[in-house]
Amino acid sequence: MKHFTFLLFCFFSLFLNAQAFRNYSNEFLSIGVDAASLGMSKSVVATTNDVNAIYWNPAGLVGIEDYQGSLMHASYFAGIANYNHAAFAMPVDKNSVLGVSIVRFGVDDILNTTELINSEGNIDFNRISLFSSVDYAFNVAYARKLIFKDLKFGVNAKIVRRIIGDFAASWGFGFDAGIQFERNNWQFGIMARDITTTFNSWAIDEEEFNKIKDAIPDQNQELPEKTEITKPKIQMGIAKNWEIGRFFNLLTEVDLNMRFSRTNDIFSSDAVSIDPAAGFQLDYDGIVYLRAGLGNFQYITEYDNTLSLSVQPNFGVGFKYNGIQIDYALTNIGSVGNALFSNIFSITIDYSFFRP
Question: What predicted TM-score, i.e. pTM, was given to this entire model?
Answer without folding.
Answer: 0.83
